Amino acid sequence: MSDLVVYYTRTNTTKNVASIIKDELDADVLEVIDKKNRQGPIGYLRGGLDAIRSKKTSIEYEDVNFEKYDNIYIGTPVWASKPTPAIMEFISQNNFTNKNIILFATMMSSGGEETVDIMKKLIEDKDGIVVNSFVIATKTDDITDVTLKAIRN
Ligand SMILES: Cc1cc2nc3c(=O)[nH]c(=O)nc-3n(C[C@H](O)[C@H](O)[C@H](O)COP(=O)(O)O)c2cc1C
Questions:
Q1: Is any ligand 1 atom within 6 A of the Cβ of residue 133?
Q2: How far is CA 18 from its chain centroid?
Q3: Mean pLDDT, to the nearest integer, of 65-83?
Q4: Does the Cβ of 57 fall within 6 Å of ligand 1?
Q5: What is the average pLDDT across 87-106?
Q6: Does residue 42 have its Cβ closer than 6 Å to ligand 1?
Q7: Domains plus CATH for the chain?
């Protein structure tokens, strides 16, 4: 089986989850970069507003041939109970027809299920097959435990 983990991160939590999956499954990893500056308090506030308004953003990532992969993991931080603009944009730019997709979201404490539902709907609208999803609340969860449990199940 070959696996790809796609993620966006602002402060590395989602990247850490991607690394755990990479190590466990020997997966390839693809980081999605948001070209908007999301750093600092202003970046935080604008990020939240952009997520609430489903505002589009410009992204960049390495060219990848998705056909090579059996499973594609897609991970996002939760922003205002929504996926990040960068991951929304990534989903809208790509074709997931008949691909097995595993969705994951990291958050402080709440909004993960709503976030995953939004992504799931977008993927299914593109004929992707969401085979699993998981949410990590950093306030209470052990990131490694939850990730390994989810991907081994
Ligand atoms: C703009 C913004 C909005 C956020 N909204 C939520 C939220 O609705 N619920 C929550 O539990 N955490 C929220 N968070 C916290 C992040 O989801 C959480 O820290 C996440 O794990 C960060 O992932 P990252 O380090 O990969 O960027 C928000 C963070 C940002 C920057």
A1: no
A2: 9
A3: 96
A4: no
A5: 96
A6: no
A7: 3-152 (3.40.50.360)
